[in-house]
Amino acid sequence: METRELQLETVLDSVKDGFFMTNKSGEILSFNYSATQIFGYEKHEVIGQNISLLLPDSEQQKYAQYLLDVTNSTFGEQESKDYGVGIEMIALNKGGNTFPLELAISVLPSNDIVLGTVRDISERKQAELSIKSYVEHIETIMDTVLDGLITIDMRGVIHGFNAAAESIFGFRAREVIGRNVKMLMPEPFQSEHDSYLDNYHTTGDKKIIGIGREITGRRKNGYLFPMELGVNEMTVQGKTMFVGTVRDISERKAAEIAIDSYIRKLQISNSELDQFAYIASHDLKEPLRGLANNALFLEEDHADSLEGEGLRRIARIRFLCTRMEKLVDSLLYYSRLGRQDLAVEEVDLNELIDSVAELTLPEETTQSVHLLIPKVLPKVTCDKPRVSELFRNLISNAVKYNNSARKEIEIGVKSCVNPHSNVLEQQVFYVKDNGIGIEGRFFEDIFRIFKRLNEEDDSVRGTGVGLTFVKKIVERHNGQIWVESELEQGSCFNFTLKLGE
Amino acid sequence: MDKDLGLLLLVDDNPDDFEAILRSLRKSHFMNPIQWCQSGQDAKDFLYKTGKYSEHEHLKRPVLALVDLNMPGVDGRQLLRELKTDPKMCSIPIVVLTTSSDPQDIESCYALGAASYIQKPVEFDDLANAFKILKDYWFNVALLPSIDGYD
């Protein structure tokens, strides 16, 4: 080998790309070190062989065509053709395995020599493949997402439109991709959208980006619907893109509107009911007073002619008038409990119960009543007069509906499960007695207005409003009340007061 | 009828209430003449000698008026407002007599110039007692405007 050729071979072997040289008929004349690495052959195994050795049958025609193209263009221009324009093809290595290859050849017109550089692109192909499968993976995920996802570019052109977006807007992805996102909006947003984008472009002023908001969307059939839109900005290969997350909130909106309307109706009906009770009670009192007075005047003016039976009936009328008056007053008071604002303050329950007990409990000489408060009670945020009334009612009931020789009342605070909500309440107040008890089937009835469980003498008979007031007061304090009781074993009234929470 | 006894004007739409008041006053031996008007408009007609009173001559000017608040048509509040803004009528003391104990009513009646505000007692005995005190105060203790200068 001549020195010049040796030098050339050394240079070629140091080149990173594979390099080979063939004559016009394809016989390999030179094969550098990188080429041996790529194809797995030793130099002497390929020198003198035809280039077709390195290609699978399926690629032979492609190579021949490529060589022809290069030769034609080279001879047409009478210049050596740079091998910058390469092709990708499949090659065959010594082990008989195919692999992707980038090939660029040029033809030296002077002596019909073909020069080729080759690069194994298996890794690049593999990377491309994995990106492709990654993209497919992402698309699959996007299509399973329940929210609509729409990708647009800086000009508003739609690039991505997932399955959920299709079902929300009624468009197929292929109908919208490449078109402007404006088509999914009603006026005036449709006309203004370009200026939003421009404005963001020039000022960076964000109308919607990064902030979720409720806007109106437009379906393919032209119907408008409320939707929640979140927009995020992202940069893809140096280009600004926006991803919009779309959620159809028609149903939620409809439900919200329905709930609002129910609440409004309920509020109106509640306040009308309170007004009704107040007005009715007021108006009921006037004829009632007239009735009582007329009975009185009849008695005063005609006592002589009425005699015993007549006088007894007049007395009865007057008694019933008084009774009705009490009921009407109770109704009035009940409606006032619902209407009046509470005077809320921090109240020491120990002091409150002390003063209530003093006024409510009978003299010790007549009855044996024992009030027990096992531990110090907390301070509570409440309306003091109302809560005093609550305890007064419960304490007097505990005494009144109690036939034990030693009447015991216990007032305390505990934590237990609220049966209304099945939630463990940390602070439940209770008033417990050893009285006559209540049957389970009456646990709800006892809180109904004017409902009484016991037959009583007219002289001691109540109006059946005490527990109704108690319940109303508890409810005004955002609390709940429930009773535990067994006949002959006593009752325990439990309630929560949650105004402070 | 004694010419020297001042006329009491009673404005109340409820005949039962009127009867009870009348009875209470009689029980405390109230001898003065009483004019009962069943509405605010009726009271105005009487005072200004209009409507059904236009043919009557020599109507007495009341020395005291007891006025119910809740009446149909011209109610007690309006009657009070109109009489107190009329220079010819504003000197007649007006006692408001009503079932309402609404603080707003009490406040506004005094602001309009009511001489007193009384809640009608529910029990007749209490009513009779209230009118005994009312009669003693207004007709025995207080000095009322002259009945002259009204024709």
Automatic annotation (TrEMBL), chain A:
The keyword Nucleus does not apply. GO terms for cellular component: plasma membrane. GO terms for biological process: osmosensory signaling via phosphorelay pathway; regulation of DNA-templated transcription. It catalyses: ATP + protein L-histidine = ADP + protein N-phospho-L-histidine. Signal peptide: none annotated. Keywords: ATP-binding, Kinase, Membrane, Nucleotide-binding, Phosphoprotein, Transferase. Residues 4-58, 134-187 form the PAS domain. Residues 279-501 form the Histidine kinase domain. Transmembrane segments: none annotated. Its EC number is 2.7.13.3. Pfam families: HATPase_c, HisKA, PAS, PAS_9. It comes from Pseudoalteromonas luteoviolacea (strain 2ta16). It is an enzyme of class 2 (transferase). GO terms for molecular function: ATP binding; phosphorelay response regulator activity; phosphorelay sensor kinase activity; protein kinase activator activity. Putative oxygen sensor; modulates the activity of FixJ, a transcriptional activator of nitrogen fixation fixK gene. FixL probably acts as a kinase that phosphorylates FixJ. SMART domains: HATPase_c, HisKA, PAC, PAS. This is Sensor protein FixL.
Automatic annotation (TrEMBL), chain B:
PROSITE patterns: RESPONSE_REGULATORY. This is CheY-like receiver. It holds the Pfam family Response_reg. InterPro entries: CheY-like_superfamily, Sig_transdc_resp-reg_receiver, TCS_response_regulator. Signal peptide: none annotated. It comes from Pseudoalteromonas luteoviolacea (strain 2ta16). GO terms for biological process: phosphorelay signal transduction system. The keyword Nucleus does not apply. Residues 7-135 form the Response regulatory domain. Coiled coil: none annotated. It comes from the Bacteria. The lineage of its organism: Bacteria, Pseudomonadati, Pseudomonadota, Gammaproteobacteria, Alteromonadales. The modification 4-aspartylphosphate is found at residue 68. Keywords: Phosphoprotein. The keyword Phosphoprotein applies. SMART domains: REC (SM00448).
